[in-house]
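Q: A reviewer asked whether we had any structural model of the full assembly, not just the individual parts. We don't, so I'm hoping you can provide one. Inputs are below.
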Amino acid sequence: MPDPVRSLALRVNGVPLTVAPGTTVAAAIMMAGAPARRSVSGEPRGPLCGMGICFECRATVDGTPHQRSCQILCAEGMDVRTS
Amino acid sequence: MSEHFDILVVGAGPAGIAAAVSAAAAGKRVGLADDNPAPGGQIWRSGTFQPAAARRWLARLNAAPLVRLQGWRIFDSPQRGTLRAERNSDCRDLCYEQLILATGARERFLPFPGWTLPNVMGAGGLDAMVRGGLPIAGKRVVVAGTGPLLLAVAAHLARRGAKVVAVCEQAPLRRIVPLTAALLGEPAKLLQGIAYGVAARGARFFTGCWPIAVNGREKLESVTLQRNRKHWDVGCDYLACGFHLVPNLELPALLGCRIENGFVVADDLQRTSVADVFCAGEPTGIGGVELALLEGQVAGLAAAGRTAEAEKLARRRKRQGFVHALRTASVLDPQLGKLASDTTIVCRCEDVPFAALREHANWRDAKLHTRCGMGPCQGRICGTAAEFLFGWSAASVQSSIRPPVFPALVSSLGASAKETCQSDGLPSAGASTGSQKEIL
Ligand code: FES
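A: Here is a predicted structure for the entire assembly that you could use as a starting point for your response.
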């Protein structure tokens, strides 16, 4: 049973995921096993720099597209979509 | 909307924290803007293992009467004395009398076949991801590249339970251990111990060794390593690979600070060539935590008008003769510039392959004809690589910096002049209450 205080529930591409507070959205996407995005020629891409520089971790967070997921912390009920 | 500060500090790594705390202690209204979720910068990124200096300075930061603008990203300077920042869909003008730039450094990435596959990350990149909650226990990791981060990252991942199967350092370890010590502000002895610790957990150390290809379909499955003329495959879950550090110069360049040999020029009091703009830490030379803390304090005191104290501290720096080993030591083996094949993507934002770039004379030309560096990262990854791959000068990459220095929302870009400092005349922000305030 996840501890309600020490865990957050969110969805990555509709699939429920439970993470510890302080987890970045990029880490959650990686846990879900999804690439963060597809490149302009369709290659799968995931986080590279982990610090907001490379833009490879872009995902749609709560409806806002192109968010650098490595710089956003997971929040209860968050909806994350990768492309 | 706007916020007014006597002193605005950009970047909440060691240099920025030291600058902000020192300036606030001198009684100034200080703002500390940083684009990460938490202060500490890349080197003190919150996690289980934090050096004593980090805990000490973060505690000082928490106690300091200053305004923390955490999660705010600066993307423009609409006029002198004003930086424009964005957080989520919020846009704000940050106005200052004095500005201290402590924008830190990032990893240099070099292209080789397969480097764009998911789970190939920077060394600091994977480390950041793990500190950001990515489970690493039991995962097989190859740490590769060159520079002071590799050893520290390998040690941290091993302590978190990762199976570090190989640490591949291009340069000799005896040169790298002192650099790692300088970067982290920890004694070299300790680092030596850490290196043995990682080895004792089963990692193999290779020097003069680097990845030449990553194999996999939808993500990394194995990496091909090369040493001397031999190459071999190693199965792994993650490749953590970076080639030393490069300073973040976009904001100093945008403000017109003089940059020489790839670093911001600053005098003894950390003043740049632009009046009222100071710079501290890695942008003035990759010097590690201890130097960054000292430069930050000097900048904070100098900006606050405590010139005598600043000068005294600055002299300590000279007396201690901080070795700027990190600035010059990590010379990249020219062979690293030959790893990309014709089809290897160099510009990851626009998917521009090596062959398309090679035929151009310089960065500007390549940009015009191939769209490299025109994507959202604005050349932060491919421009830095191209400097090394093609010998295109860093200056030309920096001189092509235009606002917005980060992609911003259209609504932020449209913020009109009447919203800037001079015209709205709003009273100053909450620091004057004497207590810390976090803008939410
Ligand atoms: S991983 Fe590079 S911007 Fe997020």
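A: Points you may want to mention in the reply: Chain B touches chain A through 43 residues (CB under 8 Å). Residues A 26, 47-50, 52-57, 68, 70 surround FE2/S2 (inorganic) cluster (CB under 6 Å).
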